[in-house]
């Protein structure tokens, strides 16, 4: 039967082929949506906040510092933990500045006045050069950073060849001796914010060398999408064969 009505509606199919195509498309779309968004919902359901090891070590050390009962090791632990937190790329400038003051305070407490004065001078040199250089490979800038690392890193018990040492060399302010009472109270909140992460068996399980949630989103969902496309083509080809449907090629 021929018709001059060429109006086509996906949601109101007028032929059996269009009806099967619509139903199949909707089913596959729902499978795709569940695979993506359902997994994210599952992550939220099973996740629990977990503190980083550095935060677990920081909390009692900082409490001792504020109570005036800290020993040298407490200052070092607090300083190391704050330097580690300063490496978080999502940190706001205000929070970063508060941690800088905290690290400077810890250095002041563990160093003699003579050594601290030299470190502060080296830090001022690094910060001044950073405003002038056009490349981070500048020899004077690198030499100034190494000078800060050589004195400040051992003072806080940080390995000079570690990433923490590099973060320390660029994370100190020119005025390191003082810290406001406001920052003393804010620092634990900042540490809690940036060093507590939601985790679960879905994030902790390692699958083919990657955390499972990462592998699922980066690889398995892609494979699943390709599988859905193949299945759609397979079902449509079977439908065409059953209905003796032939597409015109001219």
Describe it for me?
With 250 residues, the chain is mostly helical. It has 2 domains: 16-47 and 201-243; 50-199, no CATH class. The chain contains 10 helices and 4 strands; from the N terminus they run H-E-H-H-H-H-H-H-H-E-H-E-E-H. The protein has helices at 16-46, 53-67, 72-85, 93-110, 113-130, 139-155, 163-170, 181-194, 201-204, 212-243; strands spanning 48-51, 196-199, 206-207, 210-211. A hairpin with a 2-residue loop joins strand 3 and strand 4. Helix 5 packs antiparallel against helix 6 (139-155). The two termini are 21 Å apart. The model has no long low-confidence stretch (mean pLDDT 89).
Mean of pLDDT: 89
Number of helices in the DSSP assignment: 10
The assigned structural class equals mainly alpha
Largest β-sheet summary:
2 strands, antiparallel
User: Count of DSSP E strands?
Assistant: 4
Low-confidence segments: none
Content of β-strand: under 5%
Helix and strand succession? HEHHHHHHHEHEEH
* Gross geometry: elongated
The number of distinct structural domains comes to 2
Give the neighbour order of strands across the main sheet: 1-2
Q: Radius of gyration over alpha carbons?
A: 30 Å
Task: Report how far apart the termini are.
Answer: 21 Å
The percent of residues in helical segments reads: 55-70%
């Amino acid at each position: 039967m021929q018709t001059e009505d060429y109006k086509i509606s996906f949601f109101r199919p007028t032929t059996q082929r269009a009806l099967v195509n619509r139903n199949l498309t909707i089913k596959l779309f729902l499978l795709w949506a569940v695979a993506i968004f359902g997994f994210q919902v599952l992550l939220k359901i099973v996740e629990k906040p977990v503190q980083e090891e550095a935060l677990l070590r920081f909390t009692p050390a900082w409490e001792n510092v504020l109570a005036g009962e800290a020993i040298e090791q407490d200052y070092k632990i607090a300083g190391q933990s704050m330097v580690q937190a300063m490496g978080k790329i999502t940190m706001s400038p205000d929070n970063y500045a508060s941690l800088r003051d905290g690290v400077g305070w810890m250095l002041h407490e563990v160093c003699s006045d003579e050594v601290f004065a030299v470190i502060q001078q080296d830090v001022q040199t690094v910060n001044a050069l950073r405003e002038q250089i056009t490349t981070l490979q500048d020899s004077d800038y690198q030499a100034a950073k190494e000078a800060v690392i050589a004195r400040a890193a051992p003072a806080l018990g940080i390995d000079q060849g570690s990433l923490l040492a590099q973060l320390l060399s660029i994370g100190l302010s020119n005025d390191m001796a003082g810290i406001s009472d406001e920052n003393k109270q804010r620092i634990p909140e900042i540490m809690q914010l940036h060093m507590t992460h939601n985790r679960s068996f879905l994030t902790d399980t390692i699958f083919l060398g990657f955390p499972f949630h990462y592998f699922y989103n980066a690889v398995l969902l892609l494979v699943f999408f390709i599988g859905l496309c193949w299945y759609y083509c397979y079902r449509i080809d079977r439908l065409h064969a059953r209905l003796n449907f032939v597409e015109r090629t001219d």
